[in-house]
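Thread: Newbie trying to understand structure tokens

Hi all, I'm a second-year student working on a class project, and my supervisor (Dr. K.) asked me to get a predicted structure for one chain before our next meeting. I've only ever worked with sequences, so writing a 3D structure as a token string is new to me. If someone could post the tokens and maybe explain what I'm looking at, I'd be very grateful. Here's the chain:
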Amino acid sequence: MFKEESRPVPVEEGGVYDVTIQDIARQGDGIARIEGFVVFVPNTSVGDEVQIKVERVLPKFAFASVVE
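---
Reply by user tm_fold:
Sure, no problem. This is what the structure looks like when written as tokens:
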């Protein structure tokens, strides 16, 4: 009946991005947003400015790790 509009995902697996951690998830992972798209980044705190590498992309969010 109603179709969910799918927006193009602004990140890709293996992509490297500069982000600022804006929030903390319930599980303790940092949350960054790239064009409004949520990316979970473990071992980060609010306000951290980090370079991340996207490890896994799902339709509504992604998981990334900090690039050393």
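A couple of things are worth pointing out once you decode it. The chain has no helices and six strands. The chain has a mean pLDDT of 93. Feel free to ask follow-ups in this thread.
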